[in-house]
Description:
Elements: E1 2-3, H1 5-42, H2 52-70, H3 73-85, H4 98-110, E2 122-127, H5 129-137, H6 147-159, E3 164-167, H7 179-192, E4 195-206, E5 209-215, H8 219-224, E6 227-230, E7 234-235, E8 242-251, E9 254-257, H9 259-268, H10 272-280, E10 283-284, E11 287-288, E12 292-296, E13 309-315, E14 326-329, H11 330-334, H12 343-350, E15 354-359, E16 367-370, E17 373-377, H13 378-391, E18 396-397, H14 400-421, H15 423-448, E19 450-451, H16 455-487, H17 493-500, H18 504-508, E20 511-522, H19 525-530, H20 534-554, E21 557-563, E22 566-571, H21 580-604, E23 612-627, E24 632-637, H22 639-654, E25 658-661, H23 662-670, E26 675-683, E27 692-700, E28 703-704, E29 713-714
Parallel strand pairs: 2-14, 2-15, 3-4, 3-15, 4-6, 18-19, 23-25
Antiparallel strand pairs: 1-24, 4-5, 7-8, 8-9, 8-13, 10-11, 12-13, 16-17, 20-22, 20-23, 21-22, 23-24, 25-27, 26-27, 26-29, 27-28
Helix pairs in contact: 1-2, 1-14, 1-16, 2-15, 3-4, 6-7, 9-13, 14-15, 14-16, 15-16, 16-17, 20-21, 21-23
Amino acid sequence: MTLDLSARRQRERRKALYAFGVVTIFCALIGWGYQEEFYRFHMAQPIQMPFAWQMLKLEAFFYDVTLHMRGSASDALADALASATSVRSHLLPFVMEERAESALRAQLKKFAGGIYRHLLDIVIVAIDDQTVDSLHRSGIPYPLMPRAIYAELVRRLHKAGAKVIAFDIYMDMSSPFGERDDKEFANALKETGKGILACRLFVERTSGGVVVRYKGPCLPLEEGAAGLGLIDMTEDPRDSFIRMGTVAVPYQGEWFPSLATIAAAQWLGLSEEELQKQLAHGQFNGHPLPLVKHRVGEAKKGNEGVEGLEYAALLLNFVGPEKTFRHVPLEAVLFPSKHNLTDEDLHRLFNGKLVFVGTTSVVDKDVFPTPLSAGFPGVEIHATLAQMLLSGKFLALAPLDTVRIMLLLFVSLTAALVFSLRPIKAFVLVSLLGVACLYAAVFALDRWLLIMPVVPTLTAMALAFTLSTAYLQIAVERHAHHIRQRFGRFVAPSVLEMMVFASEEELTRPRRVEATVMFTDLQGFTTISESRLPEEVAGMLNEYFEVMTAIIDRHQGTVSKFSGDGIMALFGLPVPYPDHAARAVRCAVEMQRAMDELRQRFRERGLPELFMRIGIHTGEMVFGAIGAKRQSDLTAIGDTVNVAARLEGMNKEFGSRILISETTYQQAITAGANLVAEAVGEVTVRGRIQPIRVFKLLGVDDQLLPEAKTTFVQSSPDRRRAE
Length: 723
């Protein structure tokens, strides 16, 4: 068997390296395409790639998972409260001692770089279920509550020192309690100069295109307000969750701020002109805003772009679940004595604070699904955005080049693991690599407030794993085809199928093994070939080889090589069998019986008679690819091989057809073969000092050769030696 292993290995390595590169680049390009769709989505641009929308929906899920894995400030807040007040709670108390509040502020400034340091500067006055019950018991209707109640609230908050009062309550209709009720509230707003009211923008599709309509509070209230802010929620079109908060909307040549934006600006003392100037430059209070965009209205592709109203928004950095901000029931402000609150307590609670007024009652249903809660109050969403604007710490999309490099790294590692370890072993490591990708996103969010899309990376990794596995499977099939082509002429089909599952290096690496070697030769064939036509000689040899190799195949032997008219066959190689000696002797007897039949056929066709001699020996030998780097033979070498060859030639001396060594004789009997043999005695083989005991093989089991006589010794498993 002649092999060119070095060149083949180099070709296979080149092919694998080329496939690795193609898989990596292809999967990276696919992943990069979906990454671009992620950024296009957050810039309110139409998506283009197939299945991009499904990918974006899956990305929303992983985004929420990332936020949950990262955690929130609620635990840190509870720890800080425990340190400041000796009471651990996730809810801020109404009133804290000045020393305890100062300690809590110091803790918040240290936590995560101070991203929540303005948490205590924002207070929510909530119209909660407790307040609604109290109003009903007092005979005050709700939800159509007299606006004089709001007027009283504004005056009390002003008296307590509130710096800004923002109402997350839409009051576009006049009060059902009459004009006087509206004027009462409007007067309170004018007197204090701190009230900000809610307004909305409505997008309508008409025959002339997209029309944006403004709808603010009723006229008396709008005139008395210190500012107006949009309360429109930026719902994620993928699942209607709130993940972004509106900062401002371009409207009639200006930037219309949201309720949170105008409230934060007034708390900082920014004028309307300064706010407009900063928003126009994508800033707030000197901090660049990593704005994302959300479009309301019908979108279409074409030269005209995408129609609709574009909202500039920020990804919300939630402090925690609902009620992480300090919630004070409206009832506690209107009826402080019921909560054991004094004017001094109210002053300490609201002095210098940004106060949001909104509803959290189940009656109003002003709650929204968010990554952290299925029912997050709308007023707390505005408070979350305001806290972000005040702190100057924002969530931002990671730079596109950075996420591209990360994706290429993970895809390369995935393909490398599959190619180096094979798919089954690599699967666990690739799964861990996917978890590492998710943790990398969590780390980037926690350390740098960067949002990294993970679904394109995970998708590209899965695609790389699949394509690499498919390539290797094709390579395995190609290897099997190569093994069948290369070795099919030398080994039995059953042996060949076992070899298919082994690597070529395992099959050909030189190693010391114990096996049985058989040599055959045709008596006087050289003389016959000189007197016959070449075609006739070749025809006889081919027919002879065809019959003999078929028998060798049936006994799972391997034809190592043909040498002229001789055959070298191996038993127990390259696939090991414990009964290789028994297989060899059974094969030899069957070959001689077949030779008798073949000789008869040759005689009938007028061809010369052929006689075959066989020598068999069992022992250790070196088996593998023997030769030069470029070209080698898959064969066996060693003393055992030499002895088997000498035994074949010694048949002339003893007038025998099959000679076997004592080692073969003993191992065949041990393996269960019932040998019919005649002891020849000890002989000295050329090249060896020690003589060996030799037997004429006359039959095995129930198969006897014609020359078997009554003088032979028939052995059995319990009779180990011939007499």
